[in-house]
Amino acid sequence: MGLDLLAFAAHRDDIEITCGGLLIRMAGKGYKVGACDLTQGEMGTLGSAAERKAESEEATRIMGLAVRVNCELPDAGVFNIREYQTRVVDVLREHQPRVVVLPGLEQRHPDHRITPQLVFDACYFSGLARFGKGAKHRPHKILYCHTHFEDRKPTFIVDISAQIEQKIAAVLAYKTQFPDREKTTEWLRARSRGYGLMIGATYGEGYTQREAMQVDDVVTLPVASM
Questions:
Q1: Is residue 226, in this structure, part of any structural domain at all?
Q2: DSSP per residue, the chain
């Protein structure tokens, strides 16, 4: 049995910040949810790779994830090249996710900007029978975390009001990265509050997708227009 959802990010703690609420919510619904960090964060100013690994294990426990893997790509050296595509393909074929969640396309950190390009291409190549090793697998859906750098609005918002405390706890598990617990908590609440206001919820996370969304019943669509 493969994963229902697998989130990718460049560094340990990125997933918790951007889509931690979604992962917690889906895991709470009984779905098999996983995370894949591309690097070990060894270039970070705060904390060592070993410390961040231990912190990520605690965050994984808090979120209730089924699996967490690391591609061990070089931190501050993530590029969309064949060697790294193959490593991601191996992860995709091993865990066979139906839904993949990627970082937003507009990012300040080069690793963050390249990660969605790299993983998107790997998702395509993973569906080619003659590419690499293992049985082919291509995810059904690819979602992107919305970022404040983007001009366009999110495609949809996930209500994480019930998951916000768990999300904050997962982020705060990275004690080396977020030593000021009060400031970090305030930042996460403000970030999530902005998305929540878009749908009349207390807290939310924004996402985008490239393709159009299918709607079967317009009468039951949530979020009032006025």
A1: no
A2: ---SEEEEESSTTHHHHHHHHHHHHHHHTT--EEEEEEE--TT-SSS-HHHHHHHHHHHHHHHT-SEEEEEEEPTT-----HHHHHHHHHHHHHH--SEEEE--SS-SSHHHHHHHHHHHHHHHHTT-TTSSSS-----SEEEEE--TT-SSPPSEEEE-TTTHHHHHHHHHT-TTT---HHHHHHHHHHHHHHHHHHTT-SSEEEEE-SSPPP-S-GGG--S---
> What's the CATH code of the domain at 207?
3.40.50.10320
The answer to whether residue 117 is domain-embedded is: yes
Please name the residues in contact with 22: beta carbons below 8 A apart, sequence gap of 6 or more.
7, 101, 158, 160, 205, 207
Q: What is the pTM of this model?
A: 0.96
Q: What are phi and psi of 200, to 5 degrees?
A: 75, 20
Residue ranges making up the domain that contains 58: 5-220
175 part of a folded domain: yes
Nearest CA to 142 out of 159, 164, 172, 122 is that of 122
Q: Tell me the pairing of strands 67-73 and 33-39.
A: parallel
Total structural domains in the chain?
A: 1
pLDDT tens for 93-147 read 999 999 999 999 888 899 999 999 999 999 999 999 999 999 999 999 999 999 9
Phi and psi dihedrals of 4, rounded to 5?
-80, -35
Q: Convert the pLDDT of each residue in 151-160 to its tens digit.
A: 889 999 999 9
Structure tokens at 159: 């209500």
Domain membership of residue 99 (yes or no) is yes
